[in-house]
Write a structure and sequence with these properties.
CATH architecture of the largest domain: 2-Layer Sandwich
Helix content: 55-70%
Number of helices: 10
CATH topology of the largest domain: Alpha-Beta Plaits
Radius of gyration: 45 Å
CATH class of the largest domain: Alpha Beta
Largest sheet: 5 strands, antiparallel
Length: 328
C-alpha cells in the first residue's frame, strides 16, 4: 500500500509544480503586456485629469461667450429700433454699426473666452499666428476684402439707400439690401440681382428715386397740313387738366423736328413719384392725346408711299398713280 501512496503523492506534487510554473509564466506575460500599454494609459489619465481640471474654466469661458453673444443681439435690437425711425437720415450708417459692431462684440467675447480656457494664451499670439500666412491669405481673399471695403464705403458714403431704384452696369432694380459683400436688387420683373460691392463702387450708378419729382416726355408727329398751334393747345389742355401733373416745373410742348412726313412735337411734364408713376402718367397722357386729336381732326402722321407705273402696258393695266399706306 505504501508504493501506490508514494506514487499518488509524486503525481500530486508534480501537478502542483506544473500549475505553479504556469501561473508564474502567465503572471509574467500579463505584466510584460501591461508594461507596454502603461505609457498610453498614463497619457490618457493625464488628459482626463487635465480636462476635469480645466472644466470650471471651460464653463466660465462658455458663460462669458454666451453673454457677449447676447450683448450682440441686444446691440442689434437697438439698431433695428433706430432703423425703424424713418426720420433718421443716416440709415446706411446704422447698418454699418449693426453689422460691424455686432461682429466686433462677438469677436471680443471669443478672445476673452480663449484667454480663460487656454493657459498662457494672449490675443497677440493669435495675431502673430495669422501674420505667418498673411501674404497667402491676402492673395486668396483679395476679392473678398475688396468687396468688404467697398461695402463699408458704400454704406458710409450713402450714394443710395434701401428702397431706392437704381441702374448700375446696365442692371436696374430696387435696392433690397446692402450687405458687406454685395448689394441686392429686385428687378422690375421680380428677379433678384446680386452685384458685388466692388462693381457697384467702381461703376456709375443712376439713382432714379433720388428726387421725388421726375420728368416724363414723348414725341408725337402731326401732318404738315394740320394746325400746329391747335395741336399744341389740345396737348396743353390735357396736361393742365391732369391733377397728377405738376405745374412747377412747368410742362412744355415744342416742335422738335421736321421729318419727311410729319412735324414732331416734343411733350414734357413733371410728376411727383410719390403720387403717380412715370409709366402710368405717360400712358394716360398719350391715350388722351390720341383720342383728342381724333375728335378735333388732327392727324397723327404715318409714312405714305406712292408707287407709279410707266409704259403703255402699265398705263392700260393700272391707274397713273397708286397710294399705299404703311403705319409707322
Amino acid at each position: 500500500m505504501a508504493e501506490p501512496n508514494n506514487a499518488l503523492t509524486e503525481v500530486t506534487q508534480g501537478t502542483s509544480q506544473l500549475l505553479h510554473d504556469a501561473s508564474e509564466k502567465t503572471t509574467q506575460s500579463v505584466i510584460q503586456h501591461t508594461a507596454k500599454y502603461n505609457d498610453a494609459y498614463a497619457t490618457i489619465d493625464s488628459f482626463i485629469a487635465a480636462f476635469w481640471e480645466r472644466m470650471p474654466y471651460l464653463l466660465i469661458a462658455l458663460i462669458v461667450f454666451t453673454i457677449f453673444v447676447l450683448l450682440a443681439k441686444l446691440f442689434k435690437f437697438f439698431i433695428r429700433k433706430t432703423l425703424n425711425d424713418r426720420s433718421y437720415t443716416k440709415q446706411n450708417l446704422v447698418l454699418v454699426l449693426n453689422r460691424v459692431g455686432s461682429s466686433a462684440i462677438i469677436f471680443i467675447g471669443f478672445l476673452i473666452a480663449m484667454v480663460i480656457t487656454i493657459p498662457g494664451f494672449t490675443p497677440g499670439q493669435m495675431m502673430s499666428t495669422l501674420g505667418i500666412g498673411s501674404v497667402a491669405i491676402g492673395f486668396a481673399f483679395k476679392d473678398i476684402f475688396q468687396n468688404l471695403l467697398s461695402g463699408i464705403l458704400i454704406l458710409l458714403g450713402e450714394p443710395f439707400k434701401i428702397g431706392d431704384a437704381i441702374v448700375v452696369s446696365g442692371m436696374e432694380g430696387t435696392v433690397e439690401d446692402i450687405q458687406i459683400r454685395a448689394t441686392y436688387l429686385r428687378s422690375p420683373d421680380g428677379r433678384r440681382i446680386v452685384i458685388p460691392n466692388a462693381t457697384v463702387y467702381a461703376s456709375a450708378v443712376t439713382v432714379n428715386t433720388a428726387y421725388p419729382n421726375r420728368r416724363c416726355e414723348f414725341m408725337v408727329g402731326i401732318g404738315y397740313e394740320d394746325d400746329i398751334q391747335k395741336a399744341k393747345k389740345i396737348i396743353f389742355m390735357i396736361l393742365n387738366n391732369d391733377p397728377t401733373i405738376l405745374s412747377q416745373p412747368s410742362f412744355s410742348v415744342n416742335v422738335s423736328a421736321l421729318t419727311d412726313f410729319s412735324v414732331k412735337l416734343k411733350v414734357q411734364w413733371w410728376v411727383n413719384t410719390s403720387e403717380a408713376g412715370t409709366s402710368s402718367s405717360m400712358s394716360t397722357v398719350q391715350e388722351q392725346v390720341i383720342q383728342s386729336f381724333a375728335e378735333n381732326g388732327i392727324s397723327i402722321a404715318y409714312p405714305v408711299q406712292q408707287v407709279k407705273g410707266y409704259g403703255a402696258d402699265a398705263a392700260l393695266s393700272s391707274p397713273p398713280s397708286k397710294r399705299t399706306e404703311q403705319s409707322s
